[in-house]
């Protein structure tokens, strides 16, 4: 794929996943029916997803000097990602403890570990020269995310912020963000508790949300709606400010990391010159295919697989 460079700055985690018929209630112990240790972390996942789809990707992050760190560096490099800016530190590699039920739904707890050492100084402006897209999430310190967004903005890149795990966003970071990617719950939180339209709501019901986001400085927003697809909100296009993206229907096996597959696919297609609407349609297929397989990075599809499904 002929595309501009993608920089993904953020987290790498080892995913400790146990499979069970249903997720436990508070205080409840259940028997599992499978366990796996896989490479993960939102940023590493997004980098691998974009790399497998043909993107020219550089990952900036930190891992420990341990076996999990070795696994993560090998996995991302294996997807064609430049890992020369993934630092090895004395803190242990970050981990995510994940439970997955028989319907593919999950619950996740993360421990930052080495991710917490990723400092603003790591976001050297020279690393961002020539970048087309900078892909960010909130699994590393906030000031580091802001430094990366500033470096990407100054380099003329499209700054794509996946607002997950949710945290309040300062106006400065919002100003530096070109495309905000959120689910409906995160969108509501970002807008101070404003109610989002239902999954089956007509396009017109989203127009108020377009204006609310624009009021916070976000002109292009992609809201994911789970099995109902997604919606593109674009105040720069007054003729069509709201576009619904139909879901790709599959039988889900494991939804862990499907959102990261979506984000990485959006980054890959924006770097290739696609519009946000076209990127979202492509990403819908990529994320759906990822959910049909167990694991995170190991489940991500190739560009050929997505093209065949499209």
Task: Give the helix/strand layout.
Blueprint: E1 5-9, E2 13-19, E3 35-40, H1 42-52, E4 56-64, H2 67-78, E5 82-89, E6 94-100, E7 106-111, E8 131-136, H3 142-154, E9 158-162, H4 171-176, E10 179-183, H5 184-190, H6 207-215, E11 220-224, E12 230-234, E13 242-245, H7 258-271, H8 276-290, H9 303-309
Parallel strand pairs: 1-4, 1-8, 2-6, 4-5, 8-9, 9-10, 10-11
Antiparallel strand pairs: 2-3, 6-7, 11-12, 12-13
Helix pairs in contact: 1-2, 1-7, 7-8, 8-9
Can you walk me through this structure?
By secondary structure, the chain is of the alpha/beta class. It has one domain: UDP-N-acetylmuramoyl-L-alanine:D-glutamate ligase (3-Layer(aba) Sandwich). Helices cover 30% and strands 25% of the residues. The protein contains nine helices and 13 strands. Strands 5-4-1-8-9-10-11-12-13 form a nine-stranded mixed beta sheet, with helices on both faces. Helix 2 links the parallel strand 4 (56-64) and strand 5. Helix 1 packs across helix 7. The longest helix has 15 residues, at 276-290. It starts with a strand and ends with a helix. The model has no long low-confidence stretch (mean pLDDT 94).
Number of strands: 13
Order of adjacent strands in the largest pleated sheet: 5-4-1-8-9-10-11-12-13
CATH topology: UDP-N-acetylmuramoyl-L-alanine:D-glutamate ligase
CATH class: Alpha Beta
